[in-house]
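stage 2 :: seqdesign
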């Protein structure tokens, strides 16, 4: 049975390595429309901010494919699927047969249909999704003074922070009444806008972009419904993504917002086709985060290699962490309930002048959502409680202020149970980190290489280092 993977992004490249870690024989071909080795797309925000270089975010070494007998086709797009003959046609005029076809085509950046975008975007205006987009933004930012970012979600805010950090005057234009409205309630959105303001980033809310202005082929500004024009030499469009389902649709597969799959990641239309990552829709949800994509890759590798025929993807909890210098933000689950909602217990604390906003939502004695903005020292405790739908401590204050009242928080490596997830992107527990240490890894880098902890968004790096140094101390104590 040969496996053909379409898309060598974060889901496709992970699937291929998961397959090879279980089975060295099955023929695997992977097509990637981007003409480069796969890279960690999440870290593009860090490249934009100048804290990572493009060559530091590669995911799979090109030599790995040869060593592992994987036929990789960078820069080759699959253009059609012939489901009856079970083969794919590619842009290099080849046809490749498959036993199982895996679609991992991800998403494309949504470009709003506004005047000025009909014939493609003017120079300096970029819809942000790929490394090429990132390079185009950096090129436009060179010597520029003003940037407008259209879209005040996670991606838009990270882009604005990156550009402001490079010295540009940045404005975020957002259609909704507050920033990151999908993850944050209005109170948190207001505090976030204030924090960004202190960092020199303006937020224009309830703002409808009606035109992209250009002169001589280069962008000059963004027009709003109010008639106001925001001048800019750089415009980043971060208006959301659309699952890339063109191939699947043309092949007659069931597509809703994504390619509809069951718990085995199988298309509900064709048992020979699977879909993972942002192009897939499971149980009504299209995930926009890497953790579910990587979990799906592991489940599918188990199924395709026979390593675990009972493996199933049953859905994932979504935790969002902003990667922007001087703006600490973690949000998870249900965050929009008000304290007048009789169905839930809502705890909140705000100190807007210091940029702090904290909120925890508890339903039927379980933590079902939280926001930590500005001060995130209890993020580990809250994510553990949320992950396991666990009951909160009776002294609720300790959820906001570490060590206050009752027991110390479970963030500390000593208190954290072995089952606690440390790296959410890669689903690595403290127990796995300890096991890797016990096998001989002695530094955070070695543990990261052995477990993959901290190699996704990097948000758990401090926790990983904390655990490694605690294990180190334990070791020295027991050696005495
Ligand atoms: C700047 C930025 C920051 C982000 N930050 C975070 C974060 O902090 N945390 C988080 O969890 N997620 C984050 N994300 C989202 C995360 O990157 C995605 O969830 C993840 O990349 C999804 O993986 P995927 O493989 O489904 O899609 P992709 O990584 O987009 O890969 C899809 C690949 O398929 C290729 N392809 C498409 N069609 C074809 C075809 N017909 N033939 C061949 N190849 C094809 C595409 O070119 C692409 O390379 C961020 C995204 C961006 C852009």
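stage 2 :: out
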């Amino acid at each position: 049975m040969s496996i053909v993977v379409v898309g060598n992004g974060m889901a496709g490249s992970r699937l291929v390595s998961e397959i090879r870690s279980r089975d060295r024989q099955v023929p695997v071909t992977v097509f990637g429309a981007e003409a480069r080795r796969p890279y960690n797309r999440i870290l593009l925000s860090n490249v934009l901010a100048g804290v990572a270089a493009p060559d530091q975010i590669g995911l799979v070494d090109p030599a790995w494919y040869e060593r592992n007998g994987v036929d990789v086709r960078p820069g080759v797009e699959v253009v059609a699927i012939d489901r009856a003959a079970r083969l794919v046609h590619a842009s290099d005029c080849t046809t490749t047969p498959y036993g199982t076809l895996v679609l991992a085509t991800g998403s494309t950046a949504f470009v709003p249909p506004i005047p000025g975008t009909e014939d493609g975007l003017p120079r300096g205006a970029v819809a942000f999704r790929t490394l090429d987009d990132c390079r185009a933004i950096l090129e436009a930012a060179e010597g520029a003074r003003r940037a407008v970012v259209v879209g005040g979600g996670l991606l838009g805010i990270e882009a604005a922070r990156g550009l402001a950090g490079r010295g540009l005057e940045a404005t975020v234009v957002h259609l909704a009444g507050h920033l990151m409205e999908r993850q944050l309630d209005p109170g948190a959105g207001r505090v976030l806008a204030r924090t960004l303001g202190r960092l020199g980033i303006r937020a224009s809310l309830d703002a409808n972009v009606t035109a992209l202005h250009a002169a001589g082929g280069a962008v000059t500004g963004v027009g709003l419904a109010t008639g106001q024009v925001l001048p800019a030499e750089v415009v980043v469009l971060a208006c959301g993504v659309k699952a890339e389902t063109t191939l699947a649709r043309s092949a007659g597969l069931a597509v809703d917002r994504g390619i509809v799959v069951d718990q085995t990641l199988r298309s509900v239309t064709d048992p020979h086709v699977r879909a993972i990552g942002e192009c897939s829709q499971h149980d009504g949800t299209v995930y926009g985060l890497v953790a579910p994509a990587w979990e799906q890759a592991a489940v599918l590798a188990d199924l395709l290699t026979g390593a675990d025929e009972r493996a199933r993807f049953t859905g994932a909890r979504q935790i969002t962490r902003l990667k922007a210098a001087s703006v600490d933000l973690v949000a998870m689950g249900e965050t929009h309930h008000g304290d007048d909602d009789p169905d839930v217990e809502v705890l909140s604390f705000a100190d807007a002048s210091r940029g702090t906003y904290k909120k925890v939502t508890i339903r039927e004695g379980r933590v079902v959502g939280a926001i930590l903005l500005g001060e995130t020292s209890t993020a580990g405790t809250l994510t553990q409680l949320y992950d396991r739908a666990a009951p909160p401590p009776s002294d609720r204050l300790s959820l906001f202020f570490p060590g206050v009242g009752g027991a110390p928080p479970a963030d500390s490596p000593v208190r954290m149970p072995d089952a606690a997830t440390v790296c959410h992107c890669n689903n690595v527990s403290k127990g796995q980190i300890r096991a890797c240490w016990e096998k001989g890894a002695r530094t955070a880098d070695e543990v990261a290489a052995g477990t993959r902890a901290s190699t996704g968004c990097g948000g758990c790096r401090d926790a990983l280092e904390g655990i490694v140094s605690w294990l180190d101390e334990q070791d020295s104590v027991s050696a005495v």
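stage 3 :: structure notes
- The pocket of flavin-adenine dinucleotide is lined by residues 6-12, 31-34, 41-42, 44-45, 77-78, 104-107, 128-129, 155, 244, 247, 277-278, 288-291, 293, 323, 457 (CB under 6 Å).
- Residues 84 and 251 are 10 Å apart (CA to CA).
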